[in-house]
Amino acid sequence: MLQHLRIEHYAIIDELNLDFYEGMTVLTGETGAGKSIIVDAITLLLGERASREMISSKADTATVIGRFSLDNEKMKNVLKENEIDYEDSVEISRTISKDNRNIVKINNQVSSIKVLRELAMYLADIHSQFDTNRLINPENYLSLIDNFRKERILSYLKSYQNALETYQHEYSAYKLLIKEKEDTLRQLDLYTFQLKELKGLKLVNEEDVQLSEQINLMENLDKINTVLEQFNVAMDEGLILDQLYRLKQDLSSISSTSSDFESLGNRMNDLYYELDDIHSTLQDKLDRLEYDQNEYESMISRLNSLEKIQKKYGKSIEELLDYQKYLEAQVNKADNYDEILEEQRESVRGTFSLLLEEALKLREFRKDLAMKITKEIKETLKDLVILNADFEIIFQEDLPKDELDSHLFTESGIDSVDFYISTNIGEPLKPLSKTASGGEMSRVMLAFKSIFVRSNQISTIIFDEIDTGISGFIAKQIAKKIQEIAKISQVISITHIPQVVATGTHHIAVRKRIENKMTKISVGYLDYNERVQEIAKMISADKVTEASIESAKELLLSE
Q: Which of 156, 511, 516, 521 has the fewest CB within 10 Å, making it most exposed?
């Protein structure tokens, strides 16, 4: 139940603090006074999308805070699962800013829209004129049915959607294989030619780098030979290694006198053996240096071939080797595609069977639910003065033809429903969307809402002009139905109908005024005399007369 609402700098509301109570509360006021702004603010507390355009021009942020009583275990479970502390109530805060920084807090803990929406399922339901208009479009009917057993339907939906995801994955893989087959067969001659060409080259990774190095070595052979011979001559004639040997021996003889001499001796020892190894290695290279014109020309030719193939394909040697593997796989697949496709189709068949099984389970649950809804709708419509109403929910029994017929599978199942109604004896059932009047639409939706509130234990329901287009005796019956709902759930109703206003336990008036060239609103509860005046104005179109006052008193006393 909504206990308290605070609004700051939201639209034309600078600041508003309002307590709410059990039972039925009605909100009245002239069109444009701000009643719907209050409802819009409450929708933010239920996870609706925020718009920075609703921030007052005088502020950078707008804040809406609501305190709700914790009326059932489902609310507490959501809080527990998300590690949010609570006692006997839950406070929700939404702050929206002009720089698009939006903050959600639940019991002063920063949270997310996702968590808020999970919690909002059990906090409140808001019905607007738009919801009634949903009855015009049969595409909305399935969600209306599902709302009656949200938690139960979610388990069926989850199983179905998991099966759908698996099926779609296998189906997509099958379609991709078909495309691959078409592409491969179309390019098979090219693939075969390219594979033969690349295999014929017997590519080796980084061969071009090694060839370039060897060619460079051959082209600089004279210079290398000269440098190496000069090095050997310097080493041998200068007796460099002999001199180094004597020096390291001398240092070794004094190493025991100081750790510094010992360290230097070790370094000299390392230097001697390193230089000796360099000398041996260079001598070996010098001995093996030779120029072979045929070998040189062969390497030049091979390098040209490698550079040509890389330029032709626009790939490095490493990339060409990977491409060769790809070509081998594609050419091999071309001979086996029918077998591969049949294996994948068999996998699609298996996932299709499981998916269809889950879809039919979901359909059967919905059908059982539809039967219960139909019975209650008929009874409720009698209370709402559609005395001879007949109502039926009809399922389209379409089924996919085979495992490749995927168009019927949607995120919500394979079901499509329509609502049929007859409001007069002897008239056949016809689609609700095509035959019902505006007043009948409002009453059908009210019937749905009354069942919805009972089945889902919603603690608060808000009606935003659900009674539009209703008057007279029918208005009185609708008022009674809303009053019945208020016995099991807190009701907040925005209305222009005197009969509904009189039914309310509590009455809030919303007024608009101009102050310092700015539009402001004031909100407050009315006492008995003020309610009489307010209802009288509704009855007589803002011209209060003695007759309208008496009528207002009569309406209030009859409740």
A: 516
